[in-house]
Structure formats: structure tokens, C-alpha cells
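ping. complex inputs:
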Amino acid sequence: MICDEARLAAHEDLDGRLDAAARPGYEAHLVGCASCRAHREGLSRVTAAFSASPPQGAPVDLLGGLGLGEPPARRERPVRRPAARWLPLAGGLAAAAVIAAVGLTLRPATDPQLLAMSPSPAVEVGADAEAILTWFDEDADYEEPLAF
Amino acid sequence: MGAPARAPADPREADWVRLGAVGDREALRAIVLAHQDPVYRLLLRLGGDRELARDLAQDTFVKAFAALTGFRAGAALRPWLFKIANNLFLDHVRKRRPESLDALREVGDDAGAEDPALVRLGTGLALAEALAQLPVSWRQALVLRHDDDMSYEEIADVLGVPLGTAKTWLFRGRERLKVLLGGDDPKEGTP
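pong. complex structure:
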């Protein structure tokens, strides 16, 4: 393949229209020809210029100018604040601390003496339930959770 | 012209055309909403002037609506609208010199290096100025190919020229644009 053919092939390649049969010759030519490689890069920059300047939408009054009413209202998207970078880490540490504390507190006793002193779980739960019921005044204490 | 028929952008297009041809406002409105952005964009790229693009886009739809009864059922509207827009632009160029790029330049002068959006705007200005230096036919072929991803056959169909002519315009336009955008490498031309 000579340079003129390679330059034509560069356009077709850029447009996704290079013939499969022509590709090996084109690529072999590029390997040995700095000039055609530079040409191809230049063409790629043209494509990049179009991509880098995204075209604008039509003006909002175009419909009105045609007597076809107003354009549909654009739906506002809620603004989402990006979470602070340290938030996941802090959350993970807090969760780990809670798990550790609960694990230590509820760890089953292994010492036979301690086991003998410990009240039966059923009694303990029952006592707690009673205490909670007397302490919790449904009407006064309940508050709707805040919606975010 | 043997361009393969492009499918309509929206399956409801056939209904819009049928109803729009008898003056249904909602159907006409739907056609404008579906195609106003690409039509305006094409005209803005070709002329580099927002007011001109807006006026010609409106004229494009007015002409299209007047001719809707003759539109081939099942065909895609966009290439047809592009044909009308291109012809209107050519008429405008024949009547008077293209408008300046002042409106774009005013905004582009503020382009800073840090803000990616402004950098894009600056690139857009450079592209608009380079496009303005090309013959209209080359410009049309380039814009249809790069902005609307049209095939060689579709470009030939929209511009009403043989396939070989469309390719020649596109390739020559791209070569010239490469030089105008400063894309030429000094090494180029040396074996």
C-alpha cells in the first residue's frame, strides 16, 4: 500500500468503514511510515474536536415561535450532597465497636460457679420486660422517626 | 440514492406524521420536541450563529409541516428534516454572507483553563471558526458524519449527491479541518 492509499484508508478506518481485506496492508504500512501515522493522529484530533464540543440543545422558545405552546417543564432533580469521605470509615469503626461490646456482654459464661449463680434466662427476660413496660409511656415517649 | 432507510427515532413517529398531516397540534408538537435539538444543532454548526440557527430551525419545521401529507409512511423523519434544514441553510448562504461568530466568541473569550466546561466551550469556538472557513458542502458532510453519526450513504441521501461526492466532501473537509485545528504534525509529509 502506498501513502495515498493509506491516507484514504485512514478516513475509512476512522468511520468504521475500512474493508477487512485492506486492513492488514494498511496496518503494515503504518508500522513503517511515520508520516501516515501522524496523518492518522491528526484525523483523530478532528473527531476529538467534535466530541469535545457537545452540541447545544434548541432554544426553549422554538416551540412557542411555531405556535405550539410552551415546552414541557423540566423536572428538577433533587440535589444530593456527596457523603464525606470519612463517613464510611467512621461508620465501620462504630459498627465494629458495637459488635465487640455486645459480644463481650453477651458472652456465655463458662465457669460452673458463675453458671450456678446466674438466674434463668426466662426470669431475667420477664423482669426486664416488666421494667420496660413501666418505664415506657407509649403516648408520651414515642416520637415519629425523622424522615430524611 | 441507495441509502438504507433509517428506522424512525420513535415508534410513534408514523402516528405523529399521520395526525400532524391533518393539523393535529399535539402531533406537530411531538415532532418538534423529538427533533428540535438535532435540527438546531446542525444549523448552529453550519452557520455558527444562534439566532440564525433558531430562525432556520423554525423555518425547517414550518416547511416540513406544510409537506407532511407527502411524507413517505414509515420512513424516518430526521434525514428528511435535515434535507430541509440543509437546503434552507444553502438558500441563506446564497442570499447573504454568513453571520459572524461574534456571539460565540463573546462567551469563548472567557474560557479558562481549569473549568472543563469552559475548556469545551473554547474547543467549540475553535471548531466553529474552522468550520466557517470550509466550503458549505464540506461542512455539511462533516457535521452529518460527526454529530449525527450518519453513514456515507445517508450523507449522500441528505445532501442529494452521489455517494462518491459525499465521501470526497467528507474526506476533503476533514483534511482541511485537521490543518485549521492545528492537528498537523511537523513530521507529517516526511517519510
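Chain A touches chain B at residues 3, 8, 11, 14-15, 17, 33-35, 38-39, 41-43, 45-47, 49-50, 52-59, 61-63, 65-66, 68-69, 71-72 (CB under 8 Å).
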